[in-house]
Amino acid sequence: MGGPRGAGWVAAGLLLGAGACYCIYRLTRGRRRGDRELGMRPSKSAEDLTDGSYDDVLNAAQLQKLLYLLESTEDPVIIERALITLGNNAAFSVNQAIIRELGGIPIVGNKINHSNQSIKEKALNALNNLSVNVENQIKIKIYINQVCEDVFSGPLNSAVQLAGLRLLTNMTVTNDHQHMLHSYITDLFQVLLTGNGNTKVQVLKLLLNLSENPAMTEGLLRAQVDSSFLSLYDSHVAKEILLRVLTLFQNINNCLKIEGRLAVQPTFTEGSLFFLLHGEECTQKIKALVDHHDAEVKEKVLTIIPKI
């Protein structure tokens, strides 16, 4: 094939070969890009997954690698980073189940006993995200008593206290585990009265969960609460707090009326929440809020007054 026709065949062959190489290059490049987009980076070590630059949602194999790292290392820096990564990934419902199935809840839960307060906080945050899954709550409930002890014995308004309160709030959204807080109700009111604004709001979220359950009503009303609690019904109190204490009053009253509970009241001691909520001072404070400048507060008060 030495003539023009032969040269044409050679040129065509080169073009076809170049085209084939380009297609292979495109396919290979596309596959690698696809792997990156799916978060499939098999070369990543467990520590690499915690370095803050890895933004993809972890898959099951990566989560297992991370859990092994968390269980095996004693380096506080790595433990904290691993907990942050796990906590972020536990915000996704599919990973909440995967972490449970991989045995991750006890691994995370054991870290709430760590002496490092920052590690303790990150462990509580991770458990908080995991607790959104109802099946996970069955495993997390064994930590409730420890969390309560940390919340009520630790520094007021600390990051650990707030993280613990958030977890307890999630764990009491349903009635299943609320009974485990019976012996801590008075402590909750103590933190409510002494904490700052953020702490007050978080405690009230938890108390509101309890107040919706008739089975918890007597325990709430028996709690010994300082009379300064009534100052939370003053008109100058922040709206996010005022609305919640009004709802607390409303919920407890509604539960008392269920199945005629008002007709058969147990004996409450002086200084209990019952005496505060059903005293003349509380009634007058709530009635005075009918002239509150905020429409939402006023509306809430108008729904309560007829039932006082």
Automatic annotation (TrEMBL):
Keywords: Endoplasmic reticulum, Growth regulation, Membrane, Mitochondrion, Mitochondrion outer membrane, Phosphoprotein, Transmembrane, Transmembrane helix. The chain crosses the membrane at residues 6-25. InterPro entries: ARM-like, ARM-rpt_dom, ARM-type_fold, Armcx_regulator. Residues 58-278 form the Armadillo repeat-containing domain. The keyword Transmembrane applies. One of its GO terms (cellular component) is endoplasmic reticulum membrane. It is found in: Endoplasmic reticulum membrane; Mitochondrion outer membrane. GO terms for biological process: negative regulation of intrinsic apoptotic signaling pathway by p53 class mediator. Its main location: endoplasmic reticulum. The keyword Transport does not apply. It is a single-pass membrane protein. It comes from the Eukaryota. May play a role in cell survival and cell growth. May suppress the transcriptional activity of p53/TP53. Interacts with the DNA-binding domain of p53/TP53. This is Armadillo repeat-containing protein 10.
